[in-house]
Design goal:
The structure is a homodimer. In chain A, a hairpin with a 5-residue loop joins strand 9 and strand 10 (about 205-215). Helix content of chain A is about 30%, strand content about 30%. In chain A, helix 1 (about 15-25) packs across helix 5 (about 140-160). The mean pLDDT of chain A is about 95. The first copy, chain A, has about 260 residues and is α/β, with parallel strands linked by helices. In chain A, the strands form two sheets. Chain A has a nine-stranded mixed β-sheet. In chain A, strands 9-10 form a two-stranded antiparallel sheet. At the A-B interface, helix 2, helix 3, helix 4, helix 5 and strand 9 of A face helix 2, helix 3, helix 4, helix 5 and strand 9 of B.
Chain lengths: ~260, ~260
């Protein structure tokens, strides 16, 4: 099995290292990931600037291609140009992560980790994003990495519908505390956030985003609730954003000329 | 009516100028838009850096706040902090555009213009994105601007479901060539794109994205098809990305333990 791995925390982060070490046990892993941290970049693509690719080595056993761009750039560059140019195989699956922090509910639209997997789906390669629900600086990625190793072959074998990817979130618990899998929908939890106004040394104002996450949902089948119950949350998501129900209403009730 | 206007082409672009001039005829317009071009940034938020706000004047009749960030930053900063700090009114609607180029089909996930409107929706303010299907350097934004002026009060009056925004695309034709409105779904057209490998003056390689857009759809109710028929395309979109149909299948057929 050929696996392309990327992330949004950057190629030098602990999450991608743990993921690559685990996936190497089951397949041929190629890494193409952002040189620097790219959290909350969403589905950004770099169009006004060119991209640079540099080789990246770590600890003797980790090798990858570092890209001066976003997670979606990495996947598009790999699948559309770079792998073929280097005579590297087209992957059977793209795995994005392990993100340091949850990607549930509204976070999905901000997440570079999820967007990398979405870009793979746009380019017709099955993909999942995987995130660990912990912001601890020394978070243990081993439970998530081990799950990715068991899950990736199953996804390849089962297949995914065109345009659909999987968003996996792992609770921050030990392996023997896991309560199984839950196939979930994206929840409605949100950020209660604002910008803190500060003054720089020249007394000029600047604004910095801060906030805390509000757990809004209660239903068992919601991503954040599954995690809270120590279950691994797996949500199938797609990028057909049409609200079909409201489209129907508009067609019936809204004006046709303005 | 209080209207917040933003865009992704930057505060100094022709599209936002035309939009603001038109909307000023029907309401109190506040502009908060990126200082520089932010095309294809998707739903990026700036979290690792602070934001700066500067006042921007143009031609004596255009005033706005320029932000050193993304379109989603502009909307979040305005709605969560800046407007209140300056004793400015909370808007009745957020209008994002006029984008220089279409935002249909897969472009929706890359679009900073759409993401700004999505961020307004996340923060419970009705919103629409508006884009002109023209890449001509001297594109005429007047048809789009006039439509925005007629449409904004109707959206405020009609209301939108929680979590849903409108993605409006205007054909590049004259006012009297318009063939009316079509309430559409997001199509499946895509980019046949790749990265061109070049060498810099030091003979080092770099990669630059290029591509052309493939019109995939044929059905009348698709965004790109409506535009081709000189209709204004209006798609209701939301950010619940769950693929409910496949979620059902997974619950029935996929393994529950790994």
């Amino acid at each position: 099995m050929n696996i392309l791995v990327t992330n949004d925390d950057g190629i030098n982060s602990a999450g991608i290292y743990a993921l690559v070490m685990a996936l190497k046990e089951i397949g041929n892993v190629i890494v193409m990931a952002p040189l620097g941290e790219q959290s909350a970049v969403g589905h950004a693509l770099t169009v006004s600037l060119p991209l640079r690719v540099t080789e990246f080595h770590k600890d003797g056993d980790f090798f990858g291609f570092a890209v001066s761009g976003t997670p979606a750039d990495c996947v598009k560059l790999a699948l559309r140009t770079f792998l073929a140019e280097k005579d590297l195989p087209i992957p059977d699956i793209v795995v994005s992560g392990i993100n340091h922090g949850r990607n549930t509910a509204v976070n999905v639209i901000y997440s570079g980790t999820v967007s990398a997997a979405t870009e793979a789906t746009v380019l017709d390669v099955p993909a999942f994003a995987i995130s660990l629900t912990s912001y601890h600086p020394k978070a243990d990625f081993s439970v998530a990495a081990n799950f990715a190793k068991r899950f990736a072959p199953y996804v390849v074998k089962s297949g995914l519908p065109k345009g659909t990817l999987l968003n996996v979130n792992i609770p921050a618990c030990k392996e023997d505390e896991l309560e199984g899998i839950s196939y979930t929908r994206q929840g409605k939890s949100y950020w209660d956030d604002m910008f803190e106004r500060r003054l720089d040394p020249q007394e000029r104002p600047y604004y910095w985003l801060k906030g805390h996450y509000i757990l809004e949902d209660k239903d068992e089948d919601i991503d954040d609730i599954a995690i809270r119950q120590n279950k691994i949350s797996i949500s199938p998501i797609h990028y057909d954003l049409t609200n079909y129900e409201f489209l129907d209403e508009m067609r019936k009730g809204w004006k046709k000329d303005f």
